[in-house]
Amino acid sequence: MCKSTGLCGILSLLVAGFAPSYNEWLGSRRLPFVFWSSLMTSALMPTYARLPVAFRRGTGAWLEDTDGRHYLDALSGIAVCGLGHAHPAIAEALNDQARTLIHTSNLYEVPLQEKLGGWLCKLSGLEQVFFANSGAEANEAAIKLARRYGHEKGITRPEIIVADNAFHGRTLGALTATGNSKAQKGFGPLPEGFVRVPYNDAAAIEAAGNKNTVAVLIEPIQGEGGIRIPDNGYLKALRALCDQHGWLLMLDEVQAGIGRTGLWFGHQHEAISADVITVAKALANGVPIGACIAGGPAAGILGPGTHGTTFGGNPLAARAALAVIETIGHDDLLARAATLGERILRGFQDALKGTPGITEIRGRGLMLGIELEAPCPDLVEKALDAGLLINVTAGSVIRLLPPLILTDDEADQLVSTLAPLIDETARTQAGQRPASA
Ligand SMILES: Cc1ncc(COP(=O)(O)O)c(C=O)c1O
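Above: the input record for the complex with pyridoxal-5'-phosphate. Below: its predicted structure, written as C-alpha cells.
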C-alpha cells in the first residue's frame, strides 16, 4: 500500500498551519525545501481517486502488489486485459515486434495495420477501419464521420442521438455524447449537435429524430452506466429506424467488444449489423489502441486528409491486437466467456438468495453487474482488503469484468469471496444482521 500521499497531506496541513512565521524562517532555505517536498508529493494531476495500492507484476487473473500480496483481478483493468496479465502469446508478440519495428508513421503503408483492419472487418461484417489510440478517440472518429456524412447529404447542422447515462470518453466530442453532467461540469461550451434520449427506448429515438439527424450512437450494453442490458429487440428496432430514415447506426463496443459478452461484439447477440462500430480497451490487451470500423453508407466518408493520428495502429499495437484476436479464436474464448459468465451469474444468484437490498443480478458473458438498492462505494476497498479487485459504478452497481482466461476455480473463488461482502453490506443497509453473524 502507498503511504506517501497520506503522509504528505498531513505534513502539508502542519506546514499550512504555521505558514506566516514559517515563511520568515524559510528564507534562503526555500529551494532545498521545494526540492524535498517535490519528492514527497505526487507529480501527477490528481484526476483519479486512486486506491492505495500499486502492482508490480501479474500472471493470468492475478496481480501482485508492491508488498507481495496477491489479488484476484475481476476487473481486468476495466475490460482491457481480457487475456489476463503476462499472457505468453502477447508477451512473445510484443517482444518480437519491439525487436523488429515499433513505429514508422501513417505516412507509409503499415502491413500489420492492414492485416488487423482485415480481421476487424471480417469479424464485424464491415468494410473499413480507422485506427486510433483509445476509446474516446475511436468515438471522435465516429462523430466526425457522422457529421461528414450529414454534410455530404446537405445537412449543415448535423445531430447525433445519444443516450442517458451513456459513457463514450473524455475528449470534448465524446464527453458531450457522454450522458453524465458531473463529467461535463466546468468544460463548457460543449460542442452542439447532440440530442439525448432515455436508453432502451426505441420510441424515444424515433421521436427525437428530425431533418438534421445523421446518426444514433449507442452502447450495446451500458458499462459505466451500470451494466445496463437493453431489452431484446432494442438494437433491432434501432437498426430498422436507421434504415428507414437514412441515419447511421453507430455502436460503441469499447467495453462490450472483443469477446467479453461471449461473441466478438455485443450487438451480435441481436444478429444485427451496424454502420459504425468503435472498439478499444481489450483489442490489444493493454497496449493502447482504438478503432472506428465503418461499412455500408459509412464506408468511404473519411477520405484523404479528413482525419489522422500519429500513433494509431502502429506496428507494435497492431501486432499485439493480432495476437489477441488469434488467441481468442485459437483458445475458443468466446464460448468460454459465455460459460464462465453463466457460472458466475448463477453463483451470485445462489449465494445471495434471500439477501435483502439487492435490486438485480445481471450479466451477459463476462460483463456482470450486481445492483444494490443503496450506494455501496465502500465495497471496493472491502474487496481489496479481501484480495479481490472489483469496481462500483453508477453509485450502486458492483461491476465485474474478469478476464476470459479465468479458471472455474477462480470463478468460484470470485463468488465465494465477494458474495459475503455484498451480503454484509446489503444487510447493513437494510438494517439486518449479516447472514454469517
Ligand atoms: C463504452 C465506452 N466508450 C468509450 C470509453 C472511453 O475509452 P477510453 O477511456 O479508452 O478513452 C469507455 C471507457 O470506459 C467506455 O466504456
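Notes for the reader.
Residues 78, 134-136, 139, 167-169, 219, 223-224, 252, 254-255, 280 surround pyridoxal-5'-phosphate (CB under 6 Å).
Confidence is low (pLDDT under 50) at residues 1-38.
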